[in-house]
Every structure is written in structure tokens, then in C-alpha cells.
Design goal:
alpha/beta; OB fold (Dihydrolipoamide Acetyltransferase, E2P); Rossmann fold; 4 domains; 21 strands; globular; binds adenosine-5'-triphosphate; DNA-binding; hydrolase activity; NA-bd_OB-fold; helicase; ATP-dependent DNA helicase RecG
């Protein structure tokens, strides 16, 4: 079948280029044209095919111009309605004609009806099998797609990528059988079975897809392990010992364990690629400081990069506090520095005089060249774009010794990644988890309060402040307009200053100059401000352990991960903390679920799991904007068992059957490797 260039473009838009693409362009659903049902049994909601006589047909003009017909058989009647129609359609339903009608039944005012049914003459042969309905795009009809796919089925290579013994072991049907069954379901298979995706044919396809993903991640990992990184082995442990002595607390067992994991990686000659996960307040910063001290003691430079200036600055405070007295030369680099300070910073970085560099995105600008970058620590790495992350790891390649040495990378995240997701998307990332909070913490109590009762909060705030504690008041997100959001923050600050007379009420928001912001945060940290009105600039990482009450206005507008992060700003000391979620009725169903999740649990992993359920993996990972689909067929929520099997087999194949790996990746992964590796 020759295709026009317009059709060509549409096919490309669907990602259909080669026969291999067509054969895995699988149906979304099926239509059952294999049987006729009596008209009287057609129920609203059902997709049916019936035959009957046209009893009546007219073009009605009110309430709008439309074609209406009625068909009937011995068992009942059914209305047909066309809101737009061609004369040819009108001709198909002349009174007395025997017709075959297909479509979805709905409850109309005059009994059951089908809107825009498909109509043909009665009596034709019934379809022998279910009719597939493919994902398509405007202007590309189902029959065209079907023909092209059928043609591809004849020419494409359907041979199996997996040997028989492996298929038997995992209970998988042959690939060709699975593909044929999905495009042309055998007579004994119901549409419902195929829709559920539990059918053996679907299981095979899902397994193949997950296996390809695991294999490609493992390949990426092998590639990383073949790269060189600086071997960071300090001559002595003086710096680390001195740092431990300066800490006002002992590390938890979990912190000690992850420190060991990270330091072991740094002493290997290939780049570390490790994710440090820990719930809000679990104490990741000190782990980063120890890793940095280790690398510095081994003579390398370390860069710590945070997504916001407030957070970067807080890291700077802590690093300077812990490491400067030990003689570590730390440099601060952000976009808001004056040209001269910036030049000085760049110079210190270039000369190697700066041992530790803390900053924001400014760190990855072209002009900054490191003398000897050995370790990059990225806080909340998922907030940086993929491009920014790559740019930073390229920095290390500018080192003087050789241009192929890649720095080690430690990513810190307070957003726990559920297990299945970690297994599928971060298989090239080693994960360290701090699964224990520092001793003495009490669970934050979460309260849901309708906005109409906000006046009740004044007394609570007063009581907290009287106890010497501090309070955050988070202003609502106003997505449409940043200006409006700012205005809300300013207004709230003014109102609270009046209501909370006698208390020091501060304000911090994203539009303030960095120096002003830093001043407010300093004042809050030092207790000179008791109530801090803030926009979400405080969302990640801000650490003021004396704060014990957080109020979040219009909590229904925030995402679940964001609410958990915000709530994590309290409960960081030993005092009992409270988080009040103010909400405005009416709540949407999803907002209600989010608030309920916040009320029911403070466990970051549980929150992440529910967030994943509510948002789906694409949005959860923030990869949606990349336009690439993560998984087309398998689902992380329902196919966890398959993920595990695929992972097990991937390891086996990589070790013993490289040809099978090549064959399998050849079928499934053309052009997709890059995406999976980000
Ligand atoms: N082992 C420990 N014992 C007592 N306190 C600790 C310990 N480790 C860290 N802390 C303190 O706990 C607080 C939280 O630590 P940190 O800021 O590193 O948390 P975090 O994991 O970065 O959390 P978030 O993701 O919320 O920023 C800090 O005040 C820190 O000084």
C-alpha cells in the first residue's frame, strides 16, 4: 500500500518507521464484531452490534439540526443519532431497510440510543475475530493502520529473541505467537481478557519490554564502570577525625553505614554514581560533609550544588561551620555575586586554591573551570535538568592530568523513590538509604483545618512563641501568576504582623534580593524572627530545628511531595511539632486524597508510593516534559513481579549470553538508550 506524504508524517508522529515499529504498535482495545445481540438486551455503557429494521428516520431541526433514526427487532428498539451527518449517512437509514448497527449504547431521553453509530447493510458475514483498535493520530484511520500493520506482520522478523529454555522457565509464550494474538486475537479470547493485559500474550510483551530496559541500564552501568575516576585515598585520617570531633552529635547507625558505602566508592578508580536517599530531616548534610572531607583530604576539589540559593547558602553555612576551622578553603559561587567576587571565586577554583565550592547552577557555567574536581554533590538532583547534570559532570573532564577522568557523583534526595521505580529507572545508580531519624525526634502531628477556622490559629501560634519556639506560615501557590503569589505573601505578612502584635514576624519570598533573603533566614535561624511568612522558597532543605509549628495555606493546591517537604521543615528538633494544613472547600477528589495521605502518614516512602499512584511514574520523575514514554506496556504499579523476573534474567543474560542481549536490545531499544540513562 503506497502512503501519501501526509500519511507518512502522521505515521512518523506515532513513531512508526520500520516494520519492527509497526509490529509493536499494539491495540489499545478491541471491538467485538463477532456477534450480534438482540436489541432488547443492549444496555447503556455496552459496545454492541445489532441488526434490525429501520422503523423511522428523520432530520430534526430542534434543538439543533440532527439525523435521528429508530431501529427495531422482535426484542426492542434503539434510537440512532447523528449530530453531524452527510447525505450518504442519511441514505443508509431509509425506512424499512434492514441494517447492521454498531456503537456504544447510552441512556437517551427516549430510551437507549447510539450516537454516531456505524451502519451497514444487514446480513453480511460476521467478523471471525475481535477487531483491534490502535492508538492513532488525527487523520490516520484505523483501517489504514490495520493494513500497514498487517503488511508489517508479513515482512517483519518475528523470530524469538529468547531461547526456548528461558521462555519455559519464565512461562513465556513465543514472541511471534504473542504478537500475532494481540493483532489478531484467536477466536477463544475475549476482549475483556486482552483489555486486562493479563493474557499470556501481553505478559510476554511486558516482560520483553522490562527486560530490554534492564539490559540497557546494565549496559550503561558497564560503560560507566569502564570509565576512569580519580582514586580518592587520603594519606591520613586527620581531617575526618577532626570533623567527627567537631560534630555536636554522634552519627546514627544508618548514617555510619551510608558513609562507609560512599567512602568505599570514592576509593575505586571508576566514577561513583550514587543516590543518597533519606527522608526529610534524616541528616544527609553531614554525610555530604564527610564525603567532601574525605575527597579533600585526598587532594581533590569538591563541588556542592543546590537548586536554590537559600539551600545552597545553608549548605555553605554548615560546611564553613564544620570545615573552615579545619583549614578547608571554601568558596561560594552563585549567580548573584558581583562580577569581581565572581571572578575571584572562578580564579580560586581554577587555581585549585578553592578546595570546596558551594553554589547554585552558576557552578556549571562555562567560565568556571576546576583544577581538579574529584567529587560532585548534587542536592535534590531531580530538580536540576538532565542537561545541567551532564554539564557538571563534564566539568571534571577539564582536569589537567587527562581529559578522560570523570568525577565521582553523589546525588542527595529527600524524595524517596519507591522500590520498583528505583529498580527500573535507576538501575545504573547505587542507592544508599538513611532509614533512621536522629534520636529524640517526635512525629509531627498533622492537622487539617478548614480555612474558615483560621482565626483559631492565633492562640496556637502565641502559645508556641511563648514556649520559645518558632513558626512557619507558608503562603499559597498561585500558579497563574507569580506577581499575585508575591502579593499574597506581602498581604499575609501584613495581616499576621497586625494580628500577632508583639511577635517578630518576618517575610521571605523568591523575588527578594539574595542578600535580603539571606538576612531574613539568618534572623530566623538566630531566633530574632519568631514567625516566618514564606513562599515555597523554604520548601527544600531549610533546617531550623527550633521551629515547631508550620501552617500551610491552601494546602489543597500543593502536590503531595511538596507538602511532605514543607512539613519536613518542622519536627527537626526534639520538641513536639505540629503541621496545620489549611484548606478551602470544595476539595477536588485528588486534593482530598492528598490531604488524607498527609494526615495518615509521615513516612516519606509511603507518601512517595501514594504520590506515584496519584500521578503516575512519568510525572513523578519529572520526565514528562521530555516527551518520551517510559514504559509503553508494562505498569510499575501492577507488574512488580515481572520487573523482578526481568531483572534476574537480565543479570543472567549479561553474564552468559551476550548475543541474546544484543538481539533483544536490537528489537526493543532502537534510539531509546539515551533516554533511559538520564
Ligand atoms: N546523628 C544525628 N544526631 C542528631 N542530630 C542530627 C544527626 N544528624 C543530623 N542531625 C541534625 O538533624 C537536622 C537535619 O539534618 P539535615 O539538615 O542534614 O537533614 P536532611 O536529611 O538534609 O533533611 P532535608 O531533606 O529535610 O533537608 C540538622 O539539624 C542536623 O544537624
Amino acid at each position: 500500500m503506497a502512503t501519501s506524504s501526509a500519511t507518512e508524517r502522521r505515521l512518523q508522529r506515532l513513531g512508526l518507521h520500520t516494520p519492527q515499529d509497526y509490529i509493536v504498535h499494539l491495540p489499545l482495545r478491541y471491538e467485538d464484531e463477532t456477534q450480534l445481540v438482540p436489541i432488547g438486551s443492549a444496555q447503556p455503557g455496552q459496545s454492541v452490534q445489532v441488526e434490525g429494521a429501520v422503523l423511522h428516520s428523520e432530520v430534526q431541526l430542534r434543538p439543533r439540526r440532527q439525523l435521528v433514526a429508530v431501529v427495531g427487532d422482535d426484542t426492542g428498539r434503539l434510537s440512532l443519532r447523528w449530530l453531524h451527518f452527510y447525505p450518504s449517512q442519511q441514505k443508509q437509514v431509509f425506512k424499512g431497510r434492514l441494517v447492521r448497527v454498531r456503537g456504544e449504547v447510552r441512556a437517551g431521553f427516549n430510551g437507549p440510543e447510539i450516537v454516531h453509530p456505524r451502519v451497514a447493510a444487514a446480513g453480511g458475514a460476521l467478523a471471525a475475530a475481535l477487531t483491534p483498535v490502535y492508538p492513532t493520530t488525527e487523520g490516520l484511520s484505523q483501517p489504514t493502520l490495520r493494513k500497514l500493520i498487517d503488511r508489517a506482520l508479513e515482512s517483519a522478523d518475528l523470530s524469538d529473541t529468547l531461547p526456548d529454555d528461558i521462555r519455559d522457565r519464565f512461562g513465556l509464550v513465543p514472541f511471534a505467537q504473542a504478537i500475532r494474538a494481540l493483532h489478531h486475537p484467536p477466536a477463544n479470547v475475549s476482549a475483556a481478557d486482552l483489555l486486562e493485559r493479563e493474557h499470556p500474550a501481553w505478559r510476554r510483551i511486558k516482560f520483553d519490554e522490562l527486560l530490554a530496559q534492564q539490559l540497557s541500564l546494565a549496559r550503561a552501568r558497564a560503560q560507566r564502570l569502564s570509565q576512569r575516576a580519580p582514586l580518592l585515598k587520603p594519606q591520613n585520617t586527620l581531617l575526618l577525625k577532626a570533623l567527627h570531633a567537631r560534630l555536636p552529635f554522634a552519627l546514627t547507625a544508618a548514617q555510619r553505614r551510608v558513609v562507609d558505602e560512599i567512602l568505599a566508592d570514592l576509593q575505586r578508580a571508576h566514577p561513583m554514581h550514587r543516590l543518597l536517599q533519606g527522608d526529610v530531616g534524616s541528616g544527609k548534610t553531614v554525610v555530604a560533609a564527610i564525603a567532601a572531607a574525605h575527597a579533600i583530604a585526598a587532594g581533590a576539589q569538591v563541588a556542592i550544588m543546590a537548586p536554590t540559593e537559600i539551600l545552597a547558602e545553608q549548605h555553605l553555612h554548615k560546611m564553613v561551620d564544620w570545615l573552615a576551622p579545619l583549614g578547608v578553603n571554601t568558596v561560594w559561587l552563585t549567580g548573584s555575586l558581583t562580577q569581581k567576587t565572581r571572578r575571584d571565586a572562578s580564579q580560586a577554583i581554577q587555581s585549585g586554591q578553592a578546595q570546596l565550592v558551594v553554589g547554585t547552577q552558576a557552578l556549571i557555567q562555562d567560565k568556571v573551570a576546576f583544577a581538579n574536581l574529584g567529587l560532585i554533590i548534587l542536592d535534590e538532583q531531580h530538580r536540576f535538568g538532565v542537561g545541567q547534570r551532564l554539564a557538571l559532570s563534564k566539568k571534571g573532564e577539564l582536569g589537567p592530568d587527562t581529559d578522560t577522568v570523570i568525577p565521582h557523583q553523589l546525588n542527595m534526595s529527600a524524595t524517596p523513590i519507591p522500590r520498583t521505580l528505583a529498580m527500573t529507572f535507576f538501575a545504573d545508580l547505587d542507592v544508599s538509604v538513611i532509614d533512621e531519624l536522629p534520636p529524640g525526634r517526635q512525629q509531627v502531628v498533622t492537622k487539617l483545618l478548614a480555612d474558615t477556622r483560621r482565626h483559631e490559629l492565633t492562640a496556637h501560634i502565641g502559645a508556641e512563641v511563648a514556649r520559645g519556639r518558632q513558626v512557619y506560615w507558608v503562603c499559597p501557590l498561585v500558579e497563574e501568576s507569580e506577581a499575585l503569589q508575591l502579593q499574597t505573601a506581602v498581604d499575609t505578612h501584613q495581616q499576621l504582623s497586625e494580628i500577632l502584635a508583639g511577635m517578630a514576624v518576618g517575610l521571605v519570598h523568591g523575588r527578594m534580593k539574595p542578600a535580603e533573603k539571606a538576612q531574613v533566614m539568618d534572623d530566623f535561624r538566630a531566633g530574632r524572627i519568631q514567625v516566618l511568612v514564606a513562599t515555597t522558597v523554604i520548601e527544600v532543605g531549610v533546617d531550623v530545628p527550633n521551629a515547631s509549628l508550620m501552617v500551610i495555606e491552601h494546602a489543597e493546591r500543593f502536590g503531595l511531595a511538596q507538602l511532605h517537604q514543607l512539613r519536613g521543615r518542622v519536627g527537626r528538633g526534639s520538641a513536639q511539632s505540629v503541621c496545620v494544613l489549611l484548606y478551602q472547600n470544595p476539595l477536588s477528589a485528588i486534593a482530598r486524597q492528598r490531604l488524607r495521605a498527609m494526615y495518615e502518614t509521615t513516612d516519606g516512602f509511603e507518601i512517595a508510593r501514594r504520590d506515584l499512584d496519584l500521578r503516575g511514574p512519568g510525572e513523578f520523575l519529572g520526565v514528562r516534559q521530555s516527551g518520551a514514554q517510559i514504559l509503553r506496556f508494562a505498569s510499575l504499579e501492577t507488574d512488580a513481579a515481572l520487573v523482578e523476573q526481568a531483572q534476574q534474567l537480565a543479570a543472567e543474560l549479561l553474564a552468559a549470553q551476550p548475543e541474546t542481549v544484543d538481539r533483544h536490545l536490537g528489537r526493543w531499544m532502537r534510539g531509546k538508550q539515551d533516554f533511559l540513562r538520564t
